[in-house]
Amino acid sequence: MHTVEPLAGIRVVEMTLAVQGPVAGVFLRDMGAEVIKVEPPLGDPARYGRGVANETPPGTLGPQFVAANRGKRSVCVDLTTADGQRALHALLVDADVFLTNYRRLALDRLGLDYPHLRERYPRLVYASVNGFGPAGPDADKAMLDGAAVARGGLAGMTGYADRTPVLPAATIGDHAGGMQLALGVVTALLARERHGVAQQVQTSALGTQMWLQQWELAHTSITGARLERAGPHHPIIRGPYGVYTTADDGAIMLAQVMAEDAWDAFCVFAGCPELALDPRFGTPGRRLGEGLTDTDSAEVRAILAAAFARQTAADWEAFLRTQPEIIFECVQRWHEVLDDVQAHANRYVETVDVPDHGPTRLVGNLVTLGATPGSVKGGPPRLGEGNAELLGRAGLDAATIAAITAHATAVREAALAALSAAR
Predict the structure, then answer these.
(1) Has residue 205 been placed in a domain?
(2) What does pTM read for this prediction?
(3) DSSP H/E element including 127
């Protein structure tokens, strides 16, 4: 029976907002670290974000906050006050990691820049992530996910060549930045253990967008090509590779047919047996575009588009599942992904209890370790739920904790009252 998690005993003090910083903390928490989220009196703004088609009762935690903060503890303090600063530094005394996606100027104003904390806490790993990297003219530029996706090239190469570029239907910039930040933190902790050196870890949404597109950017660099958006196909891959609409408005992503007998069977089922005899598409390499012209690609794609449109997605899936040498997938929407048998078999979907909402399916821990596995630690915290316990454990007396909590509550209630009056 496994009782030890890989990051057990590691304490993370997290000052983050929205997605990019918090998702890094979720990974560390899943792997056993204690993650203390330090929030201002109004809390992380994501707590209150509802998004479209959200008919949950007023006051229910925002889905973005729930997803990015499950399993953490919350301490609510006002860092513009002396008591708030005292509380944060009390938490940092025994911390291994300070994790933040606050903008550098805000951290500087609070005295939480790296040089100050390094001098005071020499064993502390200082991990920060921003929009466009720690150097350069835009190091302090504000960022939301779509801005990073636009600047990093992904939006510019997604969609159709004759239409406006398309944003991906996910916060890829934020989540990828969080993934790289978590990787950087774990690497820095290993370096501290091996070499006795604590250090600063920095990454950005722009950098991780480029990391996600290493092949495509290398292709552009080597060839000098100025490629265009290719709609349901990949801009670099010629041939059948792409997404096709079925008779019932479903969609199938056809990636590759790896064997000749499978290609023959596919062409017969598709009602285009002439393709099986066409030498242009007669090998796996050619079916991924080797030696094909743009005209060849357009021709085979038009034939396959017509073929897929003649039968339903269920009919196509039933056939394709009889052909293990054909790489394909049905295109799923979010509600279908949450029901995916494969996702549940691997525990990529976990059910956790969300305050004021109840059992909720969320994306869980995706990294499997054989000897020291991590685990999901429950739902997101209520704002300031850890003030008494965590600040008391950090050495603050009960009177100071009560004053910190009362002040944060008063600031929050005043802000809410002003908001209500404005409406």
Answers:
(1) yes
(2) 0.95
(3) strand 125-130
